[in-house]
Amino acid sequence: MKPLYLVAAIAVISVVINIGVLLRPKPVDKPHPVAAPPAAPAPTVPTGPLNAYAALGSYVAASNRIPDLDWNDAQFNAFAAGLRSCYEGRPVPFNDAAERLREEINTKVQAILGETGTGDDPLGLYFAKLRAEENVQRTDSGLHYRLTEPGHGDAPATDATVLISYAGRLPTGESLQTFQATRLKVKLSDVLPGLREGITLMRPAGKALLYLPPDLSFANGNWPAEIPRGAPIILFVELHYVSAE
């Protein structure tokens, strides 16, 4: 399996190229004598199977602070044109001006990362953005979670037997077959540490989003082939009930 960063990089280049094509202004033979030309429509987000690529592009752009660079449309279009030129075998030479721009961007991004306290740690940045933008909470262990339905009654103990349903995915949006279960009866002592802790924060009939850092999933053990080693795991969990056993 390709490393997560390589898969993400390939996908975001494809998405950015497509966006650049959509944003490319149409040639105009003559200037309009009265009114200014209408603004270009916003690019249409793909649906169906291609939507995952668009979501991946947005995730990678956000993770790399692309929106914080404050580029205007002309700058973004030039960036997209450079990607397309390289994709078509016509790379634009990297000159002194490009080197200065790269240094400016690096300086700005490092300043932003310094403010968030994540340094150059992409995993730390990912979780910092979750807390800032997705109303996600963090426990002392590093588990991140958001309760989407509160449920009722008492939360289960760490050694309880519960009936749960869950579905897992990667931050890139890819579904994980390893984490697909419907009304599964299981002892919490037998599940991953992050899943166990997350369920103890829930109440019967409750639902939650759990974001497991690698230390609370497979850590230094054997990782399933479909999951890049060290990747966060996102779980949609429903707690049906706590067994009386």
TrEMBL record:
Entry keyword Nucleotide-binding: no
Transmembrane segments: 6-23
Domain annotation PPIase FKBP-type: ranges: 159-243
This protein's record includes keyword Ligase: no
Keywords: Isomerase, Membrane, Rotamase, Transmembrane, Transmembrane helix
EC number: 5.2.1.8
Reactions it catalyzes: [protein]-peptidylproline (omega=180) = [protein]-peptidylproline (omega=0)
SUPFAM superfamilies: FKBP-like
Molecular-function annotations in GO: peptidyl-prolyl cis-trans isomerase activity
Gene3D superfamilies: 3.10.50.40
Domain of life: Bacteria
Family: Belongs to the FKBP-type PPIase family.
This protein's name: Peptidyl-prolyl cis-trans isomerase
Organism: Synoicihabitans lomoniglobus
